[in-house]
Specification:
Layout: E1 3-6, H1 10-21, E2 30-33, H2 37-46, E3 50-52, H3 57-60, E4 64-67, H4 74-81, E5 90-93, H5 100-107, E6 112-116, E7 126-132, H6 138-148, E8 152-156, H7 163-171, H8 173-191, H9 195-215, H10 220-227, H11 233-243, H12 246-273
Parallel strand pairs: 1-2, 1-4, 2-3, 4-5, 5-6, 7-8
Antiparallel strand pairs: 6-7
Helix pairs in contact: 7-12, 8-9
Amino acid sequence: MKIAIIGCGNMGLTYARSFIQYHKSSKNDLYLVAKNEEHAKRLEELNLGTVVINPNNDVLNSDVLILAVKPQDFLSVANILSSKINKETLVISILAGIKLELLCKTLNHDIVVRAMPNMPAQYGMGITVYIPSEKTTIHHLSTVENLLSTTGRAFMIEDENLMDGVTALSGSGPAYFYYIVMTMIDTAKKMGFDESLASLLVKHTMHGAFHVINNSDSDLETLIKKVASKGGTTEAAFEVLKKNNFAEIFSQAILRAEERSKELSHLNGLQQKG
C-alpha cells in the first residue's frame, strides 16, 4: 500500500513507524513529506521511508494520504494539494478543529476521514476516534481501521459534533491523568518519601487500579466503596474532595476543554472563509 504522510512531527512519525512495524507499507512505498531541506535530512537519517520536500506525483497518487500538519499550517498545505489529489486517494486528517466540510471543500476532495488520536498512540496504546465523509466507502473504512489500529484502538462515530468532546476526553485526557499522578508524587515527597520511591508507589498503584477496572465486574462506585471503608483513611480523603467540590471542578475543566475545541473549530472555519 502506498502511503504518504504530510506533517512528519511526533504523530506523523508515529504512524510511519507503526506502518513499517506492522507491514502496512514498505519503506519504498511510504512517502514522508518534509517542510524544507533541513527537515528532509533529519527524516532521511531515520530511514523510515522515501523522503520528498514537495508533494510529488507519488504523494498525490498514493493510496492513503495522511495530513498531520499543525492546524494553523493547513491553509498553505491545502493550497498546494487542492484539486491535485487523485480522486481515489483516501485522505486521513488528524488536524484538530478542522471539520470534514472544510477539509473536503478546501482540498476539493470527496474521500476524507477526520480522526483524533491521542498521545499514547506513540507507544501503541492510543485511542483514535474517526468520522468519515459521505463519499467514503466500506473499503475505505476497512483501510482506516487497518492503519489506525496499529497505534492502539480505533472506532468510528457518526456525529461530528462529538469530536469536540473526544478532544476534551481522550485527546486531553492523558494530561489530566499525568497531573493527578504528579500531584500524588509531590504529596508523597512532602510526607518524606524520596522521588524514586514516591514515583514507584504512585505509578504502580495507578497501574494496578487500571487493571482492576479492566478486569472487575463491579462498577466504579462499588470499587471505590471497596477501598473506602467506613471511618477509614480513604473516606477521610474523600471528605476533603467532596468538601472542595473536586468532582464539579474536574467536570468543569473537561467541559471547558470541550468548549475551547468548539472555539478553535469555529476560528478555523472563519479563517477558511476569509
